[in-house]
Amino acid sequence: MSNAGCRIFLKINRPDRELLEGFRGVPVANIADEMNRFSCVDARIKPFNSRPLLGTAFTVKVRVADNLLLHKALELAQPGDVILVDAQGDMANAITGEIMMLTADKKGLAGVVVDGAVRDAKALQELNMPVYAAGVTPRGPYKDGPGEINVPVCIGGVVVNPGDIVVGDADGIVIINPADAVSIQARAKEKLVKEQAILQGIRDGLPRDKSWVDKTLKALNCEIIDDYYR
What single-letter DSSP state applies at residue 154? Predict the structure, then answer.
């Protein structure tokens, strides 16, 4: 019988590498727009350095203030994986720090995301691997367990399944189901091209058609008053 709450699944259905790499350089904001603004990790989970995040979700669920299963995940995860740690948003104890994150970096992992706290913030800024977390505390973790590896987890309010595509930049993180990735990727790239053209037009001083704003306000019956507020 499966020991729910203390179990490790060794296998992940990883997406095709070419599909994954197709998201490289595409802003998270463009991807999120083409997902109807869903699947964006909560803004409280922030990057500790400017390294771009792109990889396959390797999920970890830990007990609050405990990182035993993260140690095991570092042993099992493969280059290109992003370890996502569901620490239930707890900020009392750091789940990881410099030693473990340098180990992950040297192993070739694509990143680590912690829905909870980390420590050694200055050292994390210098890593070649992206690290995201909800906060910082010097108080370290326990190593008693239990926990789970490669099960569905909740990261910043988003359900993440092992094998999902994880993309992150300075704006935050978006989670993509590989089954939807082809169409999302194509639309996001189209949006990026359109936005780049708009930005270039602004730089060149070209006028923009903003008539849609007044049309929308009119449809809302918005009252426009040529007077001071009293």
Answer: E
Residue 13: other Cβ atoms inside 10 A: 10
- Do 169 and 52 touch, CB atoms closer than 8 A? yes
CA quadruple 40, 41, 43, 46: dihedral sign: negative
- Look up residue 142 and give its DSSP letter: B
Q: Do residues 150 and 8 touch, judged by C-beta distance below 8 A?
A: yes
Residues 6+ apart with CB under 8 A from 129: 51, 101, 104, 105, 109, 110, 111, 112
Nearest to 152 by CA among 59, 62, 14: 59
The beta strand positions in the chain, using DSSP E, are 6-8, 46-47, 53-62, 81-86, 111-118, 131-136, 147-149, 153-155, 158-160, 165-169, 172-176
Give the count of alpha carbons within 13 A of 216, CB side only: 4
DSSP classification of residue 66: B
| Angle, alpha carbons 142-132-114 (nearest 5°) | 35
- Report pLDDT digits (tens) over 192-213: 999 999 999 999 999 999 999 9
Sign of CA dihedral 85, 76, 107, 81: negative
pTM higher than 0.85, yes or no?
yes
Residue written as token pair 């923009």: 208
- Cα separation, 171 vs 168, in Å, equals 7
